[in-house]
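Supplementary Text 2. Reproducibility record for the structural model of the 229-residue chain.

All settings were left at their defaults, and a single model was retained for analysis rather than an ensemble. We include the record here because the model underlies the residue-level annotations in Supplementary Table 4.
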Amino acid sequence: MSSAPLVSCVISVFNGERYLAEAVDSALSQTYSPVEVIVVDDGSTDRTAEIAAEYGTRVRYIYQEHRGAAATKNMALRSIEGELVAFLDADDLWHPDKLTLQVAAVRERPEIDLCFTNYRNFWVPEMSDEEKKYRGHPLMSPEGAWSICTLLTRRSRFTRYGAFDEELRGYENITWMLEAARAGAVIEVLPETLMYRRIHSSNQSRERALDDEFFAVVKAWLAYRRGMT
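Retained model, structure tokens:
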């Protein structure tokens, strides 16, 4: 790995005009350099394209017809230039030191394949009643579970472990992570809270029902557990 490897930051967005600028700003404000920021628009019909254009050459904008978040990430992976890649949802935020700490970790321990961090949930102001309801709940504490928006990995790992499954809309991230783990990926979770997950009324995770796709996650998890025994 070069002394200062380029990190490609991939921001997937679909009709995300409300929060997109904050997500992009948090990527551009990283204390680590060099960074390329790529906004992949999944067929938005709002002002997403205009907001991305306001950043000029600081942001690379890619558009595709609406095919889902997995397809946006796969499209970005075919065109990124970075040796390392990180993902951010258009409604979430990174701590300014996220990439600095993660790049330092993978440089110190080159055997790490997937590097995650802790993250914390926060509620939009109009959902303050829900936030109050969860005070003292584990949802208000930093979480260390695998999250695509805390991941830093090498671009080459998508050759080793495959692309995101575009048929598993909503479950492509955890399925990919579990498949990587089952294949022997070395995984590290940094203790610092370096990503902030915004809770709002349009979160996909809030709307997602336990449909047939959920069983693909269960199947991948069971296969991972079997591989550990």
